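Assemble and predict.
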Amino acid sequence: MSCNQSDKSYKLGSLPGARAPLALSYVPMQDSAAPAYEPSEALERGTLFPGLDLPFMNVVNENVPDVPTAELMAIDFVTDELELYLDTHAADREAFQLYQSFLALKEEAHRRYAEAYGPICQRDQLGSDAYTWLRDPWPWDYPVREER
Amino acid sequence: MPYPELKGLLTDIGTEELGHLEMVGTVVHQLTREMSADDVKKAGLDAYFVDHTAGVYPTAASGFPWSAASMQVKGDVIADLSEDLAAEQKARVTYDNILRLSDDPDVNNVMRYLREREIVHYQRFGEALRLASERMNERNVYVMNPSFDG
């Protein structure tokens, strides 16, 4: 192969379907945010994207525990996962639309949760009658004690 | 980090990882909060107990306390992203190893979740390395360090 100055192909190695630079780690770009799991399945699996779901010994989680935070955690997880995807795919309009729809769902789920169980962030206390931040239980206090 | 799309990703993954520290701390708390002195001895947790009682003190499994000495920073875009990629793999293997040893289904659910996050982060750091390299000198990505030489 010629090493002529206008031809930089000798700087690239071949991969099926791609030319990648020599002497640099290469991870292919994820093509698209589809297909995607439903929120509760995404939270169970630890990813929104079936293409990235690569479990150890092929053992997977089957059910998110039925706790009051379950719905909010699942939607929150999807927005966080889409945010990481958008960080490296800022021009993906479809993913951005999906992100927008989940942001709206998150707002709604957050409001419902805070009304039923109390504040989970500072702004939930805006307009509150009393300082409820200190009320139990906190997330790590699951109800084992009451059963003893 | 001189590139905005990478600044966002590093902030978002960094924030998520701090959440993982809380989750692992919560698992340790939930496993140890009702232990008796006898449980401590049977579990081989006696050295930890003498130093920390049932308080959550972040250490490696071997007892090495978490500190800035556990971190890596080179100040070079390619070196630091390569380090981040390696760190995700090392975390993934740590979770694999815990899954080999643990028979507690509640612990394992959390470990499988955290392990999968490392795989997603690996993908994103790999994409970040590609985005960074596209902004670098196309003939020679090692011609200089964009974090320092601009």
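Helices of chain B lie at 4-32, 37-42, 46-52, 77-101, 105-135.
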